[in-house]
């Protein structure tokens, strides 16, 4: 039986920490970065990305259509649920934590105690919709 592989996943490969390519992502606040580790997040199929958020940065309430699994790589990941940001309602997850977030769940993140890095595993395409259009960096007006 012939096995069908996802695009770009038919050969053994490894990505070392020094080879991770951090890039700005239009839907993130300034300073936050995204690195595509595996797959093609804009297309249907599995993907793995990493998200690096600098100290003090808040990702205002938003949701994703896809179910997501977050693995905290470094720092402390603060996440809260709801359509309105409330710093008193965030939970702290240290490195090694795994957070399961069902698709279409309104939530927010806060780099409350320093930079954090999470790894996100999901089935694409990746989507991100802010609750308030004014919080979306893709729709900031001069």
TrEMBL record:
Residues 16-88 form the ChrR-like cupin domain. Coiled coil: none annotated. Pfam families: Cupin_7. This is Cupin domain-containing protein. It comes from Tardiphaga robiniae.
